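Field log, afternoon session.

UNIT: design team B
ACTIVITY: writing a sequence onto a fixed backbone
BACKBONE:
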C-alpha cells in the first residue's frame, strides 16, 4: 500500500505540471492571436 502511494504521488505531481504547462501555452497562443 505504501509503495503504490510513493509511486503514484510523483506521477500525479508531474501530471499537474504538464497540465499547467499546457494551459500556459494555450493562454499565450490565444494572447498572441488577439494582439
Amino acid at each position: 500500500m505504501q509503495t503504490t502511494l510513493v509511486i503514484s504521488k510523483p506521477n500525479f505531481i508531474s501530471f499537474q505540471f504538464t497540465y499547467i504547462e499546457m494551459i500556459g501555452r494555450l493562454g499565450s497562443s490565444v494572447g498572441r492571436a488577439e494582439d
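LOG NOTE: The first helix runs from residue 2 to 34.
NEXT ACTIVITY: expression trials, pending approval
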